[in-house]
Amino acid sequence: EHFIAEHAVTLLGDIADDRAFHLLETAYMTARNVWVKINVLSVYHRASQARILEFLKRTGVLQCPEDNIRATAVAMLGRVNNPTLARVFLGMMKDKNDRVRANAVEGLGACMTGPQLAHFLFPLVEDKNNRVRANALVLLLKQGMRQAERYLTEMVQHANALFRASAAFVLGEIPYAPNRRELLNTLLDDSHSMVSKQAERALEKRVAA
Question: Cβ contacts of residue 17 below 8 Å, gap of 6+?
Fold first, then answer.
């Protein structure tokens, strides 16, 4: 049943007309399987902004008790690229779930820039979660906020391998600089395979660029 529903949702997402989105909303509201709901959210970003906002209002998806659903919904909103959604992302950055918060950081970066963005993100460069911290650093460093450099260095030197792997991810996303190559070299030599593999992916992105 889940397999059939998943393919039906994908087909409706490809059709992407008013009738298809109406059926997708109905599927979301009536589905008992969490993953069917997530599949709906994963294609609903193709709808118009107005329809997406109405969908969120009618379904209350951002208040759903399922963490995976809220996280997927926030990720979907991040693809809308609408500055008026900033207050939604700021609210979701306070969510109890780290994945939701990390996605909200990305969403905020899609609709806000400059000092205003830095104001909200700087408190997160020491966040307890590696992905939240990494997403904040990517956005700050892409904006040229040099004050964030020392927090990246701290992540490279972190005792927890998850944070070091996230530091490698950051280095693959931000512009090249000599000091950043030194940090990447450190992670390439990391004794933990998860870290060194992520560093290799970051290096490949540098070469491809």
Answer: none
